[in-house]
Amino acid sequence: MPNQSDLDRRMPLRDRVYAVVRQRIITGHIPPGGIIDDKEIAAELGISRTPVREAIKKLSDEHLVDVIAQSGTRASRIDKHEVRQAYIIRRALEMESAGQAAGLFSVSHLESLNAIHHTHERLLEQKRFVEAIATDDHFHRYIAGISNLGRLWNMVEISKAQLDRCRHFLLPRPGEPEATLKQHREIIKALQAGPDAARDAMARHLDAAFGNTMKVLDTESAGSFAPFTKGSGKG
Hints:
Helix content is 68%, strand content 3%. It is mostly helical. A hairpin with a 3-residue loop joins strand 1 (65-68) and strand 2. Helix 4 runs parallel beside helix 9 (176-193) and helix 5 (107-125) packs antiparallel against helix 9.
């Protein structure tokens, strides 16, 4: 569970607790169905239970937490319907993000995206998967930032939480890292070609990721997924 050093003190306390617990659910450190004890979290962080309860309420609104009367609070199971909804929202928003970015794409943007891509590639080679996923997000967030679409990215980040949980289970699978890198290179190339090409490349990338996710969910019990903790950057 989180500890005091995990908290970013620049944020309001409720938001700090929310960010820490959310990250642990998404990365699988709190697995699907895992108990979330507000009293225990508060004690470990040295804070009252009120901001923890507020954070849990916010996580419940995102369907990451199930609050069940007389049964306690647990990390939600990974549900195919929720994953599909997250994909539909993300696909629509990021296609438009890429299209808008293509109209403003410059040499400076190209250099920055290439640098992010190379960092992503290096982290995958080193099997630092948690950091690689964060860098993958940086790639997509940067594209939204080209058009100053910060609010759009915030909506993407909230909506894609269920997809992110799957990503942490899927990424170590053979072929997944290489496929992602190839698709990112295609997006960079498409951003230079124009809005239609950029939208199409982004759609292909997200479609492929969603297809792989659904194949796994169709063949495995999401609730039985074990968290993948290698590659935290500590080893």
